[in-house]
Amino acid sequence: MSGNRAAGDERSVAEKVFAIADAFSSAGELSLTEIAQRAELPLSTAHRLVAEWVEWGGIVRGDDGLYRVGMRLWKLGVRAPTARRLRGVALPFLEDLYELSRENVHLAVRDGLGVLYLERISGRSAVPVISDIGSRLPLHATGVGLVLLAWSPPELLDELVASSPRKYLANTMTTDAELRPRLAEIRSAGMATSVNEMTQDSFSAAAPIRDHTDAVVAAVSIVAHADRSSDPRYPLAVGVAARGISRALGWRS
Amino acid sequence: MSGNRAAGDERSVAEKVFAIADAFSSAGELSLTEIAQRAELPLSTAHRLVAEWVEWGGIVRGDDGLYRVGMRLWKLGVRAPTARRLRGVALPFLEDLYELSRENVHLAVRDGLGVLYLERISGRSAVPVISDIGSRLPLHATGVGLVLLAWSPPELLDELVASSPRKYLANTMTTDAELRPRLAEIRSAGMATSVNEMTQDSFSAAAPIRDHTDAVVAAVSIVAHADRSSDPRYPLAVGVAARGISRALGWRS
Predict the structure, then answer these.
(1) B201 and B138 share a domain?
(2) Rounded to the nearest 5 degrees, what angle is found at the Cα of B68, between the Cα atoms of A10 and B59?
């Protein structure tokens, strides 16, 4: 029942408090036992610290006895300036893209070897995608991810290739030999288009968002049905939106 | 420099960890001294615990030496099922309302004597409003707030009136004598319309969202220019959207 570290756990109390939060990083609801296991804490310690989390409101206990992330953490999290500012500046442009396309419109930032979705606007009839706000997908298999990878330090590609990236579909590129020329092409074109790399029958056009220092800080994309991949309006619209968001962030060409 | 509680502070370590997070509940960026003051901790304790927060990624330290909420908390917060599920179900309906009106569209839940905004979609030319995702405004002065108050236990009105609610504008109702008949009227109409109660020149039409138990769990609104207050389409559209969201949550009339 107790975690692996139970004997001689040298973590501070704060680290144990955070370990409990981390238990929810890939789960919507957990029992106390599951929290203890994931946080590698003895059940008694987990019980005491979870009670403090619940008292504070960061975790809530449902009538079913399971624990979930509470609104107190939601309220705190939305105050993160990175997400708040970028989303605030980008939203009108994302809405323009959505009105043009009625497809999925994404705003994403890099998070390690993954891409983190800050915003998604989707029409009812848009192609189904697995991304959602707060979800994390791999850099190498998504349009926004390839854009963020293309403008990252070259060491990141080495790290990614060494991490045995998953080949989701036949088109997913996973090797240095495939990705290196692809990323050069993306940099040269100023944007990425991809078909069937993460989700079957989907097409993505993605472009980089730059801040006032000319650094690429985010990416915007439209994800549509694969049969739209030859429609020249999508890459153009995404490119224009990305430049608009960049300008609103203080970027000058 | 040290907080009021420094002598004989009986809070647990976890409570002190949470007190540091709470320092950011109404501030975007803080110095270490400000965090210590708000958390009522000695500077040395604040320094040590903030370092643990930064190590974890829940708080980040900028080049300017100020501390801000980090993306780790954002990622965790967006997992809160209340916000996630409600937003996911409501978003297509909010987008419909936005396309109809090109005005501000809000989704909100009650948070004590306030209303917490879970989502906002705004056109570029929409009337400016002070609400934003994660922001909190008073129940008695907003359309969504009046709706949530109307379907709350009656004790909440007593509590609100006793809290000396602020009269933002001439139209803002703050007394029991004003609010009680108003809330009865809202319950009878099934929705609330308000003009110039929180923001000058603004009109709000708001309706309740119910879950499968028939409980009012959220509210949706359109906020437009005051000159739209006689446009019969807005209350109708908001009412239809609220019922649509309710049905998607399992409600049956």
Answers:
(1) yes
(2) 15
Q: What number is the ipTM of this complex?
A: 0.85
Domain boundary among A76, A104, A121: A76
Which residue of B15, B122, B134 is in closest CB contact with A75? B134
**CA B108, CA B126: separation in Å to the nearest integer?**
18
Q: Does A71 touch chain B (CB under 8 A)?
A: yes
Within-domain flag for B8: no
SS3 letters for B159-211? HHHHCCCCCCCCCCCCCHHHHHHHHHHHHHHCCEEEECCCCCCEEEEEEEEEC
Structure tokens at B211: 């879950």
Q: How far apart are CA B103 and CA B122, in angstroms?
A: 6
Do residues A171 and A114 make contact, with C-beta atoms less than 8 angstroms apart? no
Question: Which bin fits B134, alpha (ψ -120 to 50), beta or left (φ > 0)?
Answer: left
Bridge partners, B222 (sequence order): B105, B205
Given a cut of 70, the residues of chain A with pLDDT beneath it are: 1-7, 123-131
A26 touches chain B (CB under 8 A): no
Nearest Cα to B14, choosing from A159, A149, A15?
A15
Vertex A176, ends A171 and A181: CA angle to 5°?
75
CA nearest to B133, candidates A85, A167, A20, A213: A85
Q: Let me know whether B34 and B101 are in one domain.
A: no
Tokens standing for A128? 């189904």
Give the domain extent around B200: 81-248
A222 DSSP β-pair partners: A105, A205
Tell me the whole-structure pTM to 2 decimals. Answer: 0.83
Q: Residues 6 or more apart from B12 whose CB is under 8 A from it? A: A52
**Contact with chain B for residue A29, Cβ under 8 A:** yes
State whether residue B51 sits within 8 Å of chain A by CB: no
* Separation between Cα atoms, residue A252 and residue A213, nearest integer Å: 9
Residue of B nearest to A75 (CA): B134
Asked if residue B154 and residue B114 are part of one domain, the reply reads: yes
The 10s digit of each residue's pLDDT in B153-186 is 999 999 999 999 999 988 899 999 999 999 999 9
How big is chain A, counted in residues? Answer: 253
The strand pair at A136-138 and A114-121 is best described as antiparallel
Tell whether B65 and B135 lie within a shared domain: no
Say if CB A185 and CB A196 are below 8 A apart: no
Q: What is the CATH number of the domain that holds A109?
A: 3.30.450.40
Last residue of a domain, one of B56, B76, B96: B76
Question: What confidence category does residue B83 fall into, taking pLDDT thresholds of 50, 70 and 90?
Answer: confident
Determine the Cα–Cα distance for residues B98 and B222; give it in Å rounded to an integer: 8
Q: Is residue A213 assigned to a domain?
A: yes
Cross-chain CB nearest to A14 (options B13, B81, B122)? B13
Asked whether A217 and A86 are in contact (CB, 8 A), the reply is yes
